[in-house]
Amino acid sequence: MTRYIIRRILQAIPLLFIISVILFVLMQNMGDPLATMGGRTITRSAERERLTRQLGLDKPIYMQYLYWLIGNDWDKFDRDGDGIEESPGIRKGILRGDFGTSLVNRGIPVTTVIGDRLPNTLILMLTAELVIILFSLGIGVYSALRQYSFMDNLITGISFIGYSMPIFFIALVSMYIFSVNFKRWGLPYLPTVGMFDPQVGKTASEVLRHLILPVFSISFISLAAYSRYIRGTMLEVLNQDYIRTAKSKGIPRRDIIFVHALKNASLPIVTIIGLDLPLLLAGAVVTERIFAWPGMGRLFLDHLTRSDTPVVMGILLLISVAVVVFQILTDITYAWLDPRITYK
Amino acid sequence: MKKTHWMFTILILLSLVLASCAQATQAPEATEPPVVETEPPAEATEPPTEATEPPAEATEPPAAERKVATFIWTQEFDTLNPLYTNMWFAAITHQLWLSYAWDFDDQGNPNPVLITEMPSQDNGGISEDGTTITLTLRDDIFWSDGTPVTADDFIFTWQMTIDPNNTVAQVSPYDLLTSVEAPDPKTVVMNFAEPFAAWAGTMWHGILPAHILRPVYEAEGTIDNAEWNRNPTVGVGPYNFAEWESGSYARFVANENFWLGKPAIDEVFFRFVPDDASQVAALKAGEGDLGTFIAYSDIPGLQDAGVNIVTVFSGYNEGWYMNLSPEKGHPALQDVRVRQALAYGFDRFTLNKDLLLGLTVPAATYWDNTPYAFPDAEPYPYDPAMANQLLDEAGWVDSNGDGTRDKDGVELVLRYGTTTREIRQDTQAVVQQQYQEIGVGVELLSYDSDIFFGGYGDGGPSATGELDISEWSDTTDYPDPNMAYWLCSEIPSDESPAGVNWQYICDEELDALFQLQNTQVDFAERQATFHQISKIVFDKVYWLGVWQDPDTFAIGPRLQNVKISGSTPFYNIYEWDLVP
């Protein structure tokens, strides 16, 4: 197993390199970072020339990538526009742990920009994932045990409705119902946006209260897909011979369902969760935007639309690494769940 | 699976605890006075001759009585250092905690803040030849750590702006200064090589605390990475910076020692809400006291919810920029009669009434709602018959019967591009339909802002001349009328890719007038020049106004005494109040 993990990590290195090259090239074609630096007016020509030079955007794309990768402290630059390259670079490059600084939040290290948002995203997304897994397990198992019953059909119907609704619609409708209208009707209401009420302060209870609507919006759609999937795999397992054997041995029904059936049914579910977990780091772009949740999804969108290559590359690389790591963890979980699986 | 669930639970609880503990911002604690710098100023400045006492420690009101106003900001600040941003949402925030040397009231009149009076030739503040401007600083202004504000801070700000080691957002117009001198700690003398008329609208929008940032510059050779840029614990204004949490909020607490009086509101809380619909919901739910850039379609609903709508002009007008490049633009646009026909054939009045709910009117000139607009200009009326007549006279007729006019084998089909903003796309659809009636074809194109506003070197569609008509909303150096879009020297090319004359217009008469106004420090003379400029632009239809584009503020029912200025909206924020 250890050799397998080491091999997978070594395989990931060239993969991440190729991914970084592709993403960097794509980012260069996403827009002009100077286009929005003029505020509400167009960036003036002299300022554009100066900033292009000072921010190193006048260099060829392969040189910009090289600086991003290995740094530019071995090279010299013309910062004052006199045609003489006399100022040494200060970047160390990502291979030496320097992800650079944001073009938008000038001077702020990319690691700080991302680090500020990551905890907020984890709070939102892990809560949502927990809700999704718990409820989908409950609903999926319940539906599988009562196949084609009224409740099964009802749950199936609601699942399809939930799955077919766009998240922005759920988010805005729930905001208007539970926040705006409930307040107008004099009912207990939920907050519309943000993480806390400024009059109260940022307490755990405030954060939890502000989590309800975003988590509901994210969960509602995913819950439908997950529960349908669990229902299907549970039905498949419940018809296996070993379940029948367990029943004939007189094992209690609860043990048969939750120990024998669910454990085996969870193997494909682990695959889905394994694929989902790294994406949690990316946040939920639409939900975070609507509920003004200060997470990674909003960060990504804000900086992508302003062509902030260092920050966008940092986020994408973080997700790429997370995908690789979680795939390895998924493989390990497979082996734990199914002793027949071995890795060489 | 049980273990997995436990792991999730622990992780969430841990995250919640960390998030709420690490940056706990209990409102009552937020009233602490700003951190007092223990570091001595690098270069001590002389105290003012008649200096008042430095500010005393603030006394905080009890938590229950605190007045906290929540402002909804649809864009987060990029930085709080005024040198590094042109972002509107960042710049106007400076008026709270980093006062401009002067601002403008709701009538557009200059209003001295850090200085005793506005310099003029009458009071000797501007020299006879217009090249020297002298500012006299107030005696009673102090940074929030108690250090006096002096001329040295102005000199340092100028030095940092023009220093090539700082990647500031804008060097102009400080690069026009040959020197800034301080004959005494309360006098700033600005020396220009040539008279510079636009100084009042463009200079000293926030100054830097030299005693905080000079040591940073001396240590690092730049202030690009200064902690103050993000965490400006020392400022000068009606409010003091308290904290800024990325993506979430920023807080400013009242400066008890503000020289014009303690602000009535104890704390201003900026909440960053990027989604327009969410902003409207929060305002309706009473979770925001002020919102900005409200879509016209949302105004009736907000007014029904008791929210006041205030519109102020900041010089912005939505309009069309015609591409007059002989090589890149459509040949028909070379003829002024065709451009006038486009004006007559577009029913901008109905568009303003229907799509913009009658809350706006078509702009006649680029300088509408400023003293510099040509007073006799009225928007071209909707007159398709006149449009047809002008097009016929220009020789553009439908010779092949395909419904579109043509001339010398060239079809009159114009490439009309703008951003993806909804109202602009709706406008495009209206134009396409109306121009069908006068035999003009329109190819509609829309782009994300960072692509649409991309420069010539980055292949921006407008900058490279790919479009015949480009639409966006823009202003001058408001309230100053100066701008560079029609200068011949600003036409972009491979040799000069940074040019901003994306209309490729080189009108020598217009160019000369723009050069002239830039040096006219006398208001009446400059106004007369601008009347000529705006008349030329109007008559020759170099620019066609689609609607006047005022800034829209939504003011919640709790906010009182609010006056908003177009260029410096928070000029009287210390007088604003909150009622329960």
Structure overview:
The complex is a heterodimer of chains A (344) and B (580). Chain A is mainly alpha-helical and 344 residues long. Helices cover 67% and strands 1% of the residues of chain A. Chain A is built from 12 helices and 2 strands. Chain A has helices at 2-28, 45-54, 61-70, 110-145, 150-164, 167-184, 204-238, 241-248, 253-280, 285-290, 296-304, 309-337, and strands at 76-77, 87-88. The longest helix of chain A has 36 residues, at 110-145. The radius of gyration of chain A is 25 Å and the shape is flat. Chain B has 580 residues and is an alpha+beta fold. Chain B is 25% helix and 18% strand. A 5-stranded mixed beta sheet of chain B has the order 16-15-17-12-18. In chain B, helix 9 runs antiparallel to helix 11 (384-393) and helix 14 runs antiparallel to helix 15 (523-539). Chain B is globular, with a radius of gyration of 27 Å. At the A-B interface, helix 2, helix 4, helix 6, helix 7 and helix 9 of A face helix 1, strand 1, strand 9, helix 7 and helix 13 of B.
